[in-house]
Amino acid sequence: MSPCPGSRPSEAEAFLADPRSHGGAAVERIDTHISALFLAGDRVFKLKKPIRLPFLDFSTLAARKAACEAELEINRRATPDLYLGVRALTRAPTGGLELDGKGEAVDWVVEMRRFDQDTLFDRLARRGELDRERCNALTEAIAAFHRVAPVRGDRGGRAGLDWTIATNRLSMLAHVQEQGGVPAILPVDGVEDLARLSFAALERYSLRLEARRAAGLVRQCHGDLHLGNICLWQGRPALFDAIEFSEDIACIDVIYDLAFLLMDLDHRGARRQANWVMNHYLDLTADFAGMAPMPLYLSCRAGVRAHVCATMAAGAQGAERDRLAADARSYLAAARTYLEPAAPCLLAVGGLSGSGKSRMGRELAPFLAVPGAAVVRSDSLRKHLMGVPIGEKLGPAGYEPEVTERTYQRLYDTCAALLADGRAAVADAVFAKPEQREAIERVAKAAGVRFDGLWLEAPAELSKVRIAERKANVSDATPQVLERQLSYDLGAIAWTRIDSSPPKDVTLAAGRAALGV
Prior knowledge:
The protein is α/β, with parallel strands linked by helices.
């Protein structure tokens, strides 16, 4: 890290830290490794630090101004109400500084509305307040942001990940030497081993990465989508602090963007929530092909956090340095582990409407892969085939036999593709016909992977109550639909039968026992 010369940056910091600059309001300062934020009253002023790193250069006034303007533009796409504008710190006639005066610009800041820090998602996670409804709302905000993000076919792909791996390595190697008698933060062997394995993984996934880039799935994304950059604003999840200083970091595959959040949740011990987010994103987008490079994506994201924590540790002292250094080593170890995913497998969960099969599949998924097996739901696939959002109801035409046949074929094909890519899958459908159950079993057999089939059943009256109580559910099933299903000839069911009428945790325990997980 190399600061630019002169005292002006510290002068800017002193001005922004002074309550007199904010009408007497008390000022709270928050530092990241590249910015200083000054919170006063209902406003936040974000100052770029005059530093140079392998992945950014804020060492000139012009560069900091451009970064502030770019930050305003990209973040307004996600949360326009939070970002108010770019303000100049100018030389006052008295010799001090002022905001937007007539004197020369000394520095530039981004002005934001202040939000309640307790609504930051990293704090919600620590308090155990990331329930499924909140995770779904967050996922929908991310998917909407990705949907309108500018396509950047000139970035990403194989070259993009090559740059990321090389930059991670270079940034981490800056912290493998003892400094003035203070122990090294990261082990050099661990850093080099991670780079070697990452480049090898890149070779395996390079064709898929290039295909996705060509398909328009590399976009100008958030780039830094961890829990600390998400808050609740007006009761809804809001993304902020997107990367503005590097197209290499921001212009990436949409799934790689999502992977930062998945890694962050998983590393905090919230794999269940990471699984919810990943599979709701798949429900919304049907982007199952993006699961192929997920191990590398998660690893690269953990590598980013490793070198960021190491950089922050290098500038800290005492217990704070020790904490950040331990975090850096923990992320380095996680980055290595993500590159060794479990062997793929296929789980099929069937049952009549209201039996709890979708919940069972969703809750078993994180026991099968990291952060979870991809759940392939017939309800979602049917709506994608019909070209309607998953939250909309389909009319009778959506349930014609020909559509149902196409839906199941899409489910078989999607599961087969996931297994071929080395990813675990959960097939979630009614599977009322013996030939449907036989077909999904053949998918696993053809891939040479383990297959498990679970059949959930509950008393009809209980299932009807569950159906009637559903909210924001992709399924269009009604109690009347269940009545028709009850007349089906299901044939012999060889899958493990599970009574789903007991409490949810009891039913899930039965599913885990059946799989031995």
